Every structure is written in C-alpha cells, then in structure tokens.
C-alpha cells in the first residue's frame, strides 16, 4: 500500500522501464478482475496523429455547455500528471490518484507473475481511469484519447457512442508502420461495429484504408470535405471563425478561441460527433451549446500565446505534420516579425524534415536538450539544421530568459517540439513572465 501521492506517482512512472507493449490482453485481464468497469460508462473515442487533445476539449466544452458532467482521459500532461484524468477540465485530486494506484498496484503485481507480463505505465493509468469513472465518480460522458495508434492501444476496449479520427501523418513509424496506409490501418482499429465514425483525414491512401475498415464494421463514415465542409474561414485576433456545412444544414460564424486553421477541422469533428451523441437518447445538445462550447474551449500547449508584450508562444508541434501547421500559422500571422525559435525533440522522430521546415521560417533558431529518456541531444539537432543563424544551448531555462529579456517590439519567441518539453517550459515561462510583468 502506498501512503503518499509521491510514492504512488514514483511507482507509476517507474513503469516506463517496460516501454511500449502493444496489445489488449493485459487490459482485458485487469478489467475482468475489476468487474469490467469500461462497460459501465458512455464514451467517445478519439484517435489520429495530431489534434486529438484539441478535439477532446472542443467536445468536452460543448457537452459542458449543455449541462453535462464530462470525464476526459488524455496524454501526455502539460502542467500536472493528474490532468490525464479530469472531470469538466479539472484534474482529479492527489488523494484520488493515491486511492486508484492502491487499487491497481495489486493487480499489476499479480499480472507480472503471469505469461502476459506486467502492465506498462500507460496501461496502469488507463486502468485507473476506467475504475475511477465507473466506481468513484460516475459522469454523463467520458471522452477517451488514444495513446498510440488505435488497434492495440489500451483504451481500445471501450464501446463508444462515436469514434473520431482527426488526421493521419507519418509519426511513430517504428511502431505503426512506414506508410500512410499502414498507419491508417492501426488508427482505424478504433472503428467499432455499427458505431459512426468522423474523420478529417486528407491523405487518399489513408482514407481508402479507413473507408475499407468502416465498411467491414458496417460503421457510418462522415468525412471532412465530403460529408461535411468548412467554409467562410477567417482568422481572428484571438482565434478563428468559420461556417460548418453538412447536407442541407449550416451553422454559420462559429467561433473558436484556439489559433490555427487546423483547429477549425478539430472543432468541426466535435460538432459532427454531437449528432451521434444526441441520437443516444440520454443527451440533448442544441446549437447554442455548440457555439458556447467551441468559443470557451482551451487546450494548453497548442499555439498558446503566453505573453503579448513581448510575444511568447509555445506549441507542442512534435512531428512533421505539427511543424507544418505551426510554420503556416507563423508565416500567416507573424510574417512581419523577426522570429526566434527554440526547439527540442525526441530522438525517435523524423528530425530532418521537422528542422528543415523550422529553418525556413526562423530568423534565429536554437536547439536545446531536456531531461527525458528519449530526448535528442542539442548538438545532434544543431548538426541537422542548415540555418545560417543557429545555436545550441545546454541550459534551456537560462537561454529562454535571455531571449525574452532581449526581445524587441518586432520580435517574437516561439518554443516548440516535444510535448514533454513543452510541459516543462510552460511551468517555467508562466512564472518567469509573471515575475517580469510584476517587476515592470
């Protein structure tokens, strides 16, 4: 038995040593021991390469605006571990984490002695969430974000009301496959028999695979730019405005507070999923709820402006597709500014393509390391860059402070890369910028 939150957290994180172990057998074993808690809740399942977290928060806020209590399971965390299991956007308490860990620990120890082997960190946290929402805090709906892939992800034992696949890119290729088709097959694993699926996938090879899997599962498939369309998009000072058209129905001038054209796609997926939720019978969500929820929705670490004077932006663009949309937004919104970029990444990413894109938009670019087992070294990132104005730094916190203190009115700082890095940076910069404002 653990007696403190820190003890529980250390045990959970220690399971990172087991790495990634695809498959559902360990989850099924634990769920059977716990009385199948995953069957005692109403869920929506969200997978894809990028945009999962944003889509979760759009849908959560819509449901909240309609008066429902919504649980979410997301990863990784940005500010604190507890936010991975949240209710109406509020992370569960340290005491609840302790209680849940003491429930799952004996099962993990018992499972370790079987031929299946012990559960991974992600499997443990997923099991904790199922137990929590089934037995400790029963909510109206739980939105589950896929951790990796879909078909063998530990969340893929739920029977959701709707499935959402945001987009598909070439990420985690060492695990999911090296082509869009192979990766799409893994992502499409969350499509369930007869359950409607909504997708914003654009790649033709990936879409073909998703369509095939949906047909096999007799699941209705709703596709961006075919079954629903975004029109009249216009960037706003603090977000985006767009119209969503589906069949003969149109919702005009929807507003979101998250920046980036791609966020309109994530928002549209959430809005489309509402039709499946409304058909469930226990939910009633109207257009006003949709408008209110979308405008209120906020997701940390995604093109998040931490400061306007000076302009400091953080963005968890951790793969090639994420970097592409970041570069597009910077080119559109800040083309007249001198752009300083600080970048850190995991070494198992396609770093050459990511850095090449950043080189094109950055007036100055610097590379840093951070404390994480899979983090790339600054010198390796530096060597890949072709920029004429590049640097590498050992102490990212000191480096960021120096840049911010030297920023002029026509300059901005953009910190991007791994979400694990962004989670550390946000805590530091929030405090640093706060103190800087006070001192002024």
Write the layout of secondary structure elements.
Blueprint: H1 5-14, H2 25-33, E1 43-47, H3 52-65, E2 70-73, E3 85-87, E4 90-91, H4 94-112, H5 121-136, E5 141-145, E6 162-165, H6 173-176, H7 180-187, E7 197-199, H8 204-216, E8 221-223, E9 229-236, E10 239-246, E11 249-256, H9 261-278, H10 287-296, E12 304-308, E13 311-315, H11 320-333, E14 338-344, H12 351-361, E15 364-368, H13 378-384, E16 390-393, H14 396-406, E17 411-417, H15 419-439
Parallel strand pairs: 1-5, 1-6, 2-5, 6-7, 7-8, 13-17, 14-15, 14-17, 15-16
Antiparallel strand pairs: 2-3, 3-4, 9-10, 10-11, 12-13
Helix pairs in contact: 1-4, 2-4, 3-9, 3-10, 4-5, 7-8, 11-12
Distance between the termini: 49 Å
Question: What is the CATH first-level class name of the largest domain?
Answer: Alpha Beta
Cα-atom radius of gyration: 22 Å
User: How much is the average pLDDT?
Assistant: 93
Treating each run of at least 4 consecutive H or I residues as one helix, how many helices? 15
> What does the main sheet amount to?
8 strands, mixed
Low-confidence stretches: none
CATH-level-4 superfamily name of the largest domain: Mur-like, catalytic domain
